[in-house]
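Standup notes
- HV: blocked on the assembly model, inputs below
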Amino acid sequence: MLYREAGQFKATYAADQQIFPIRQDRIVMIALVVFMFAVVPAVADQYWLSAVLIPVLIFALATIGLNILTGYAGQLSLGTAAFMAVGAFAAYNLDLRVPGIPLPVVLALAGVFAAGVGAVFGLPSLRIKGFYLAVATLAAQFFIVWALVKFSWFSNDSSSGVITAQKMHLFGKVLDTPAQKYLITLAVVVLLALAAKNLMRSSTGRAFMAVRDMDVAAAVIGIPLMRTKLLAFAISSFYCGVAGALYAYAYLGTVEPEGFTLDLSFRILFMVIIGGMGSILGSFLGAAFIVLVPIGLNVSTQWLNGVLQSMLHWSLPGSLTSNLELMVFGGLIIFFLAVEPHGLARLWQIGKEKLRLWPFPH
Amino acid sequence: MLRRTKVLAGLFGLALAAATGAALAAGEQFVPLLSYRVGPYAAGGSGFFGGYIDYMNYVNMKEGGINGVKLSWEECETEYNNSRGVECYERLKKHGGGASMVQPLSTGISYSLIDRVATDKIPLVTIGYGRTDAADGSVFPWVFPMITTYWSQASDIIKYIETKAGGADKLRGKKIVHLYHDSAYGKEPIPVLEAYAKQLGFELTLIPVAHPGNEQGAQWLQIRQIKPDWVILWGWGVMNPTALKAAAKVGYPRTQIIGDWWAGSEEDVIPAGDAAKGYTAAAFNGSGANLPLVQAIKKVVYGAGKGNLEDKSRIGSVYHVRGIVSGIVTVEAIRVAQEHFGKGKVMTGEQVRWGLDHLNLTEARLKQLDADGLMPPTHVTCEDHEGSGLARFQTWDGNEWKVVSGWISPDKQMLRAMIVESANKYAKEKGITPRDCSKEG
């Protein structure tokens, strides 16, 4: 009823091509952004800000990065975590070695460094595809983490190879409360998500999708394959690099190269798959699903145990609940993928189409 | 569609209800447990947190808590994953009237918490792992890498080798291989070993093993060529039994292999079978079901059916006792704090830190606790957050660990200088002004 676009006429091309062509979507999106910027920092406590929202946003950014490469340009990559590590260590070294460098420049340059490394490791994509390319990017994953541990210069000769992020300064102010860290993360993520959305609607994005759908055909219609593929790697790694820098600076504070393992790469790949390949919205949904559902399950088993304890004076043993959570989480992933193989973003789209007809379906 | 929405809404509602519920009784001393019982390190995690919980249960059941204040705790599954650990910490830190202290048994998670515990004023205790230079309590007031750090351990291992060789001067010209897990953990002792190589004149060869370390043929061929007098095994997880088996295959005597304490539990040697016989590893805690405190816990806690370990044969295993040691440190620090701030009161994180800063577990005190031989005497001060540095050595005889040395003390003078240098570098990078320990009460 509410969600109906009757009476919304588009008189210009610009109106027809905007990101959210339906007025209700625009209103909801603007309201959501205002809510996230103005209301959340005021009402959310430290737990929600620094343990839930900041990681979801950072993982969403990394997922957008991988989604550009895998979802839009069709190049499978398992090196996401390594590109995040490049971003984190680049930011640390920039801050350490270039005195007085402003935070936005640090973040941007961290992304640029990651983009450069990503483009180099993207070179094999010119010859190989699919799972073979995944194996080639796997090399990036192992090589980068190895190099960061091996050459102690990267960690300023710390004996354990661990770096501690410096304080974040912006316009002479130190950003150290959870709300401030949340706001800077949110600002970066919103900005880069908007940029990604627009980029994917531009000729660059269409070139990516043409390469994804059939690279021979794309080459025939005049899309330079080398440039497009390397650009996809570079842009994707840029996003991962910025996400990695935020991961170190706004989230964990101290990071070790081993924190950026293959495990994290897989986790981000799952976010892309669960959220929906080739969807910016899906990146947010996927990141939220993978980060929040295990926490929700953990909280609910704790709660269940509390109830059992008070009613029966008996509770489930810790090893059982821990394994139960993993099993339920795995089950949920299979359930959602069985319901909609194209991910949560597609589920959302179907829901919207049904809503347009509701309450009078044909 | 409708049904699906209902299921989703129901799940969401459940999560919300749980987030708001689960309040704990007031007047209890709360300890958050960032445990891990699934994943690749579950064997260690379940033993350790089992021991930790068993000891707290023991204190509650035998003495009715600490001067009448009962201990309460809540577990949160981290899966040994840094971001899950941070989430658990943030969730539990304000539960039950505020966390007393946190012990994550994961170097990665403890690194992620260093900044957070300083703002939240909750002490972070890392026994036998974590950041070594945090032993400088003036730069790291909230971090306690207690009993022994990796650097002390490296020093202890060299000292032990010295005694086996018949004196420090006997090491000149000898060959020692450091076979390590190629990670921050394995690299940490290298500066200490290098300093010793220079000082004592032995030839040190560093051989890294890539994670997870289940293929070491090349490394052991290299070791066979070098023919070292000693091999230091600084391994982790599956790397340890693999190393022992590979050593047996190339015919390197296991008696010449000295492991660190993450290579010194039952889980590290049993999978290697006979190949592990005669292998020696460091330990900062005793083990065995016959220790008096383990016996007492078995009687009081397991007798009442409240024991945390499901597999009763693991009672008294290395990880279980390590958990008990963590429990002792927790309880004793709270006790010291209570003696200063008021007996029978619930201590805040800040007060518990005072207790940790003044924790003095002498041999006599450990005897009172039935814990002599369980852990070395430990005296923490404001400057020295390590408090001991002692380790002893145990040899696997095929069935159990046999203690083969007394407590060995590291070269504190050399280590202290290195720790202060590293901590000062950290302080400079982070813009921290070290606290003045002479002014701390």
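- HV (later): unblocked. Chain B is about 45% helix and 15% strand. Residues 11-25 of chain B have pLDDT under 50 and may be disordered.
- Next: hand off to the docking folks.
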